Amino acid sequence: MSEPQSSQRDILKKLYHDFIAGSHILHYHNVLDAFGHLSFRHPFRPEVFVMSRNAAPGTISSVDDLVEYDVETAQPVQRDAPAGFLERCIHSECYRRYPGVQSVIHSHSEAVVPYTFSGVPMRPCYHMAGFLGTQTPVWDISDAQQPDDPSDLLVRNTHLGSSLAAAFADGAVSADTPTHAVVLMRGHGFTVLAESIEVCVMRAVYTQKNSAIQTTALTTRAAEPAANRAIKYLSEKEVEATGRMASLASRRSWDLWLRESFDDDVLRCLGTLLPSLDTSPRALYRSPILFLVAYQDHASPATASVVDADLEQRRGGPSDSHIQTLGPVMTVSTRLSSEGRHHGDRTGGERNPSDVASLRKDLWETLVKLFVD
């Protein structure tokens, strides 16, 4: 029996939210910079997967930035879809080959790239990297290229994507379940598969962390060449046990990274905005994030009074798109004000730490509604 339409919408909203949040988490951890990408399989149409338009992951902020693609062809479902990533065949071929895969990440992490071409195998170094297995395979695009393929190391078509996808099963032609969660790509980066966005993000972040730890270990070991003891990586038994543990604990990492990436975005925005708050209060209208944080937490009494008066005057104007967008924000603003959660210089008192946590929760919930409703 199919789920009610409203329930399906709720599930999709959560996935859209997780996708946007995951993109910012990956950017915060430098797993994705201006390049690289995250995707997820549509929960009710498994023949479709979702990626962002061709943009830096850290700039993704709305469902309007997302594009649906056909798994078989890697072509957009909608003809008028915005331009997409050249390497979306990485994602389409992994989804086509492995029905259980629900999320894919492709990264160019600088910490990982040396292990793609140096001949030094990436090995699991600590308990958060058991998902890597005892050794991570390296896929060489030159082994799969045809004469007319460009030599730019990009996975531009389905036969290259199919070859990469096969590497997750050690090249087995008929395997429909990956035996590896991560495959390195020579001179390029790495790709991660998982059963959810949350777990996929966790694996990508800890692949990068494991690479940094292994590089440090190798460097430290080289400093004492006379030492008899070799580096001791995780055993096969340890890999199996720690891999299960890490997946079960992914929510803890996700919740922390969500807070860190959100706070980082806000602080970077405010760093640009705050110097002009007292002279240009209308700049607050440019972004719901800036408005909600700056007005509640940082506005001086003079600025606050100007903004209050201006909003009161403008609130009734149905043609004002800024105020329409900020409708949910104003609801939170009014409620927070009535509960006495304004900054000390607005109320004459100090803010309780629990109020700060509550404000952040209100901020996030409101922004999620703005972005995905």
Automatic annotation (TrEMBL):
Gene Ontology terms: cellular component: cytosol
UniProt keyword annotation of Manganese present: no
Keyword Repeat: no
Domain Class II aldolase/adducin N-terminal per the UniProt entry, residue ranges: 17-215
Region spans: Disordered: 334-355
InterPro entries tied to this protein: Aldolase_class_II_sugar_metab (IPR050197), Aldolase_II/adducin_N (IPR001303), Aldolase_II/adducin_N_sf (IPR036409)
Pfam families: Aldolase_II
Alphabetical UniProt keywords: Lyase, Metal-binding
Compositionally biased tracts (Basic and acidic residues): 338-355
Top-level taxonomic group: Eukaryota
Biological processes annotated in GO: pentose catabolic process
GO molecular function terms noted in the UniProt entry: aldehyde-lyase activity; metal ion binding
Full protein name: Class II aldolase/adducin N-terminal domain-containing protein
